[in-house]
Amino acid sequence: MRKSLIHFFDTHQLNVTNEDVIASKPYSSQLKGKNNIQTITNILEWQENNIEYWFERAESSMLIYIATIYIAVSLLMFFMLGMGLNAPQTLIYFIASVFIITIIYLLIPNKIVITVFFVLYAIAFLYILNSHGIKIPLIYFVFGGIIGIIIGALVEKFFIYAHYFHKKSLPSSLRRIFEMLELTLEIKLPLSKLLDYKTAICRDYAILSAVFLINSKTEPYYVLIRKHVATAVKINDYFYVIDQQLPLRQLDKWLADNKKSNCRLYKVHFKDDADKANVEFIQKYSRKNKKSCPPNIQKIEHDVNQHFTAKDGSCHESFKIHINKKAVYFYDEVTHLSVVRMIIKEIEKQFCNNVSQISRVEIKEENEGLIVDVYY
């Protein structure tokens, strides 16, 4: 029963529709490479360059579950507890709790501080009321506080989104802000909206990757761990994970980076003329203790230099770029291109329009990772 529920919630949030596939086709076409590895690397790099992580929506995912549980429980509790108090008195204390917690939520950015304050506030307020002979159940403050946090979160997000659209006319700005608020609370973001706003959380990234892969005739898989999901592809009987940023990672490496020992694997595929893809559980995968494979420095260095046009003349200066060890280990022929693209992107970030001045790039291995010396 428990496993069935887990699989139901997993697949419900990660559905791919024909509408999604059609909406992504213009993007998928431009990302198609000479081979499968190029296409997959292009998909990953495109996401890193064009999609921002939607932190407000990630926070709201938990808010939705809290609000749902709250509404169900509070309706029952207020009916039962309210019978022992007169309605005006109950309403006054409840509204006071909502108002105070909403203000505190908006004024204090640290949510841990808010939680501590709320507990202390409830205890202190109850003590004062009891000292005056007024008996109010603690549950009223708990429910009032939860509603205050939910209202505070929505008001906070309203002002965050207002910043993005302040240059538009007032009606247009309000329409876009309220649409963003609505999308923030969506379990599954329509792909057309994701491509419009260019912002996503992990399950949106996973669906987008899956759709791009379907358009490129590559079978996608979902890999799920607690509080996270990504898309994988199977190459040479092994899984490689596409997860928001370069480089492409082996599944065992991805699990190690996320400090997990296992994950759930789902295959995504369309059956006949179905409007929606079938998300089918295939196995629970356990991490293997594979030996770390160091990168082929010589080959990486050669391919990075091939990208930049050498400038005639001697080198006067050099600039060092550090690449984290975690990003390049568990390297193989499949991940090679994504490592090269990651290093090229780091160089271009530092040199901007002056990349034409680069004479050569030298890469060496150190304890903490790779040192990239760029001579110009």
From TrEMBL:
UniProt KW Transmembrane helix keyword: yes
InterPro entries referenced in this protein's UniProt entry, alphabetically: Transglutaminase-like_domain
Keywords: Membrane, Transmembrane, Transmembrane helix
Protein biosynthesis as UniProt keyword: no
Signal sequence interval, chain numbering: none
Residue span, Transglutaminase-like domain: 28-266
Pfam families reported for this sequence: DUF553 (PF04473)
Regions crossing the membrane: 63-85, 91-108, 113-132, 138-160
Family to which this protein belongs: Belongs to the UPF0252 family.
Protein name: Transglutaminase-like domain-containing protein
Native organism: Methanolobus halotolerans
Species classification: Archaea, Methanobacteriati, Methanobacteriota, Stenosarchaea group, Methanomicrobia
